[in-house]
Design a protein that fits this description.
Blueprint (H helix, E strand, L loop, with lengths): L13 H7 L3 H11 L5 E2 H5 L8 H13 L3 E6 L2 E6 L1 H7 L3 H21 L5
Antiparallel strand pairs: 1-3, 2-3
């Protein structure tokens, strides 16, 4: 089995991180990983998405997050466990991930409020 690629954070440009988090599914997956204290497998994280997506698409999302230096993935048998690399990213880009997580939370709250209002109000 081919080893997983995990770049050194010093080699990850800001644009790669922003690109990885520009997709709504990827940012949702990443924020959920950040909010958990232990590694999560891909199947568990699929439940945080609004719509079911194919396993191959989910794998591609994790690959993009991994190659942008945002997560570390580890194979354990047939499972792939994912952990956020927040401390490393924070050392390279102070405040970036906290701002993104906060902005994502604000956006989700606004979306929830919008959908909970009766139509026409």
């Amino acid at each position: 089995m081919r080893p997983l690629f995990h770049p050194e954070i010093a080699e990850v440009p800001l644009e790669a991180i922003l690109h990885a988090l520009s997709d709504p599914a990827r940012v949702t997956l990443f924020v959920d990983i950040v909010g958990r204290e232990c590694s999560q497998n891909c199947s568990t994280l699929q439940a945080v998405l609004e719509k079911p997506i194919a396993k191959s698409t989910l794998s591609q999302h994790f690959k993009v997050l991994r190659e942008a230096g945002l997560i570390r993935s580890e194979r354990r048998g047939v499972e792939m466990l994912n952990t956020a690399r927040c401390a490393e990213v924070e050392a390279r880009y102070p405040g970036l991930l906290a701002a993104i997580v906060k902005a994502h939370s604000i956006q989700r709250q606004a979306e929830a409020e919008k959908t909970s209002r009766p139509a026409g109000s």
